[in-house]
Amino acid sequence: MQASGVLIHQLLLRKVKSKNPAELQFFIGDSNLRFGLGEFALITTLNFGKEPDVGKYKSMTCSMRLRETYLNNKANVRSGELEAAFLNCEEEDKWKLGLCYLVDGLLMAHESSTKILMDMLSFVENEEDFFNYSWGRRSYERMFPSLNKDMMHQRENYLQKMKKNKKAKEAQYTVYGFSIALQYWAYEAIPKLTGVFSEKLGIKFPRMLS
Asked: Domain DUF1985: where (predicted)?
């Protein structure tokens, strides 16, 4: 999968205020297009179930083996440290640490200095528990605030920086979470993008496979 920063940026420039604070709306052509939790779920089919109850959560987080073996039993681990552990781990644990790295690096899109969710190192010891966890909801909650940016505010910040320093600067911002879902949704919702940014392979499920 290849993310297009240009396409996501162009969508954000066309973002309009929505009456529903839990969704994004974009004015494209003559229509307001909606992107919310339902669209995110349809595109990704990640698990969006409820968090496990206290008893179940405790049983899911009881194993410290991966932390002790690869991360010096640290109470807090940074995303960059998880990546290094994955790249250097023994073959038998490559799959489990790889799943953790997939969640942290792709679904959460953490920076290398950000603390990871330590509990997932325990979740992954039981794959059924790991895959049944609500990673979809977690990812959407991580992604939504960073997509719901006030682009005019971003522009004003950039202009203020230019006033203070006349040297040319880049205007940058960060989008966290599985933001590529917005891009795949755009391929579905805006037919004119097909052939320019993407090639449609038919109707598949999850829709991102199309």
From this structure: 12-144
Q: Is 98 left (phi over 0), alpha (psi -120 to 50) or beta?
A: alpha
pLDDT for res 168? 62
Of 150, 85, 142, 143, the closest CA to residue 112 belongs to: 85
The arithmetic mean of pLDDT across residues 5-16, rounded, is: 93
For 150-166, the pLDDT digits (tens) are 888 888 888 888 888 76
Tell me the whole-structure pTM to 2 decimals.
0.86
Ordered by start, the domain boundaries in the chain are 5-45+139-209, 54-133
* Amino acid letter for position 179: S
DSSP calls for 79-123: HHHHHHHHHHS-HHHHHHHHHHHHIIIIIS---TTSBP-TTHHHH
Q: Is the Cα dihedral 130, 134, 136, 141 positive or negative? A: negative
Measured distance CA(129)–CA(51) in Å, rounded: 11
Between CA 119 and CA 57 the distance in angstroms is 9
DSSP state of 22: T
User: Dihedrals φ, ψ of 188, to 5°?
Assistant: -75, -40
